[in-house]
Design a protein that fits this description.
CATH topology of the domain at 9-109: Spore Coat Polysaccharide Biosynthesis Protein SpsA, Chain A
Mean pLDDT: 91
CATH architecture of the domain at 9-109: Alpha-Beta Complex
Low-confidence stretches: 250-254, 298-306
Strand content: 5-15%
Number of strands: 10
């Protein structure tokens, strides 16, 4: 579907826009959504945090974005009075979305998409609708726009939800509590080792799954990764980055990140060549894990090793 088609009939793929208390970034992301004019737009908003007067003001400002919808579309809203927190608010919004649609695009208020992201997701949602192994379409790419391939996309077991799309059939496998992690830990640990083969990656997932079950972090996306991993799911990734995260300093992020505001690069969907095989590209997967520092450089490990040694020596000196 090209620009003239969108202008004439509208963008047919449903879009879920998840907002909270950042009216400025909400406006920027909305302006990108507005360019494609989706025929069905779902907007979900968590309530202000208790006792936070700034939230009361900013949540109200963010919700006024609904007044700027000036094209012909069906609008659905889920505006909560109470605050559920990052994990429950986002996951319940996606639950609500898929009670109403079979497939769709999901954007949070800090995930700024390149306009070509929408056509890319729509094309791939249609292409892989019935391929259960494909569980999501990601707009995020951490290859830093340095890799080219003739297909325009690849499959991997890296599951980035900064602007993404999926189907109800995949989201139905989601388990917010991941309550079988502790019960089946040894079995699942064995599967992780078989899937990823690199100790750093296995340790990364174990650490974060432990944090989830022990309520150490309030999130929803590690649970989605868990569902994908243990259902043998793949992520479909564009070869160029289509999403720029413009708001990691917020309720969910904890500060400045090297991945903040990564440049996007338009993808021409008319030139995409569909892959013959549905399988993870292990080479690009490993490069990605290194780029996002899940696989640690040797020099980093060396520094950590010597820090531990020095700490041990100092503790022994104190005892003496």
């Amino acid at each position: 579907m090209d620009a003239s088609d969108v202008e004439n009939i509208g963008f047919q793929t449903p879009v879920l826009f998840i907002i909270f208390n950042r009216p400025s970034t909400t406006k920027l992301v909305f302006n990108q959504i507005k360019k494609v004019k989706p025929k069905k737009l779902f907007i979900a908003a968590d309530g202000p945090r208790p006792g936070n007067l700034n939230d009361v003001v900013n949540c109200s400002k963010a919700r006024k974005i609904v007044n700027e919808i000036d094209w012909n579309c069906q609008v659905y809203t889920l505006f909560r009075d109470e605050n559920l927190g990052c994990g429950r608010a986002v996951s319940s919004a996606i639950n609500w979305f898929f009670k109403n649609v079979e497939e769709g695009i999901i954007l949070e208020d800090d995930c700024l998409p390149d306009e070509s992201f929408f056509a890319f997701c729509s094309l791939m949602l249609d292409k892989y609708r019935f391929d259960k192994q494909v569980m999501m379409i990601s707009g995020t790419n951490f290859l830093f726009n340095k890799i080219e391939n003739s297909n325009g996309y690849f499959f991997s077991k890296t599951y980035f939800a900064w602007g993404w799309a999926t189907w109800r059939r995949a989201w139905n496998l989601y388990n917010f509590e991941i309550d079988d992690w502790n019960r089946q830990r040894d079995t699942k640990l064995g599967r992780l080792r078989k899937i990823f083969r690199h100790r750093d990656v296995v340790d990364y997932w174990c650490e974060n799954f432990d944090k989830i079950v022990n309520k150490k972090i309030d999130t929803w996306d590690y649970q989605w990764c868990y569902s994908c991993i243990f259902n043998d799911g793949l992520s479909l990734n564009p070869i160029s980055n289509l999403i720029s995260n413009i708001g990691l300093i917020g309720a969910h992020g904890s500060g400045k990140s090297i991945f903040l505001e990564l440049p996007t690069k338009k993808i021409d969907t008319s030139k995409i060549l569909f892959l013959k095989n549905i399988e993870a590209n292990k080479n690009l997967e490993i490069i990605t894990h290194k780029n996002i520092r899940i696989i640690k450089p040797f020099r980093y490990k060396l520094i950590i090793f010597f820090k531990k040694k020095i700490k041990r020596i100092l503790s022994l000196i104190e005892i003496i």
